[in-house]
Write a structure and sequence with these properties.
alpha/beta, D-Maltodextrin-Binding Protein, domain 2, 9-stranded mixed beta sheet, two-stranded antiparallel ribbon, 11 strands, 21% strand
């Protein structure tokens, strides 16, 4: 038979009246008004269909039905206490590591200093780094938070915060320019050699644009990442598209720009399950503005007002 009983808080009231012998005494133990205690007992009797107490001027005397329910009520009380104790232990238990995914070259001292400040504010927080060029599956939980470089984040299930943009240009080494000259626009690309990032050809608009203006025999190297492109450009092998900050710091010379110089945006992305964790939400709220400020300061330091 289905029971209509569902107010577990009434069990606490029932036990107090059982132990104290009256609704007045029980109200003092419970911190409730006496009429409220009496009303909760009336409701409990109505829901269970039982007379639980015989009323008299001397107080409330438990019936046989009340004594039959007493062990079960005490078991509910004990379970509620255990529930609270386990919840309290969980609140003080060591936090799970925050798994942060990023490209290998993103793990810089500036980034780790932001993480260190967060640990100072949230002691006990630890991090696991997933250094990869691939976009890890945040939906499946392969990482909790990812630092991503992309035009946009298409998956609407992900939580994302944009922190800045990466501007690119075509760069050459001083040695290459000494031998072949400095092309100031793609119209001057004839006779020059170029380095392509094959890994990004499917999504890199600058490389797609360049390939429509040069012939295949002008491509002298095909690389799989920006580090390889940078190394090839530094050797004087040819001209390649690179982020302006890194290339400028490497002493490379800016030749010309693609039509849209924004290569990608910098995003902090969180998976839905990870976003439910308070420490992850606190980390995102702390990290995103700090890293955005770092990107802005770095851009101004290296490039000035020109992004």
């Amino acid at each position: 038979m289905k029971s209509d009983f569902h107010e577990w808080s009434d069990v606490r009231v029932f036990l107090a009246v059982m132990r104290e012998g009256s609704t007045l005494a029980a109200s003092k133990v419970l911190g409730m008004a006496q009429p409220t205690v009496a009303r909760r007992i009336d409701v409990l009797e109505h829901v269970t269909g039982l007379v639980l107490f015989d009323r008299s001027t001397k107080g409330f005397r438990p019936t046989v039905a009340a004594h039959a329910l007493l062990p079960l009520a005490e078991a509910i009380e004990a379970a509620a206490a255990d529930f609270g104790e386990v919840a309290a232990r969980q609140r003080t238990a060591p936090l799970r590591p925050i798994r942060l995914s990023m490209t290998p070259n993103s793990l810089t001292t500036n980034l780790t200093s932001i993480l260190a400040r967060f640990r100072d504010a949230y002691p006990g927080t630890t991090f696991e780094f997933v250094a990869t060029l691939d976009a890890v599956d945040l939906i499946k939980g392969d990482a909790d938070v990812a630092l991503r470089y992309a035009r946009s984040i298409a998956d609407e299930r992900l939580f994302r915060t944009k922190m800045g943009d990466v501007y690119c240009s075509y760069f050459a080494s001083p040695a290459y320019i000494d031998r072949h000259g400095l092309p100031r626009s793609v119209d001057e690309a004839a006779g020059h050699k170029f380095i392509i990032n094959e890994r990004l050809q499917g999504s890199s608009e600058p490389d797609q644009w360049l390939l429509s203006h040069i012939s295949p025999d002008q491509i002298v190297a095909r690389c799989q990442d920006f580090e390889s492109v940078t190394a090839a450009v530094q050797t004087g092998m040819g001209i390649g598209v690179l982020g302006r900050i890194g290339a400028t710091r490497s002493g490379l010379v800016r030749c010309f720009d693609p039509p849209d110089p924004v290569f990608a945006s910098v995003w902090l992305v969180t998976g839905p399950d990870a976003h439910r964790r308070p420490e992850v939400r606190a980390f995102v709220a702390d990290f995103a503005p700090r890293y955005a400020a770092f990107l802005k300061a770095e851009r101004e330091e290296v490039l000035g007002t020109d992004p």
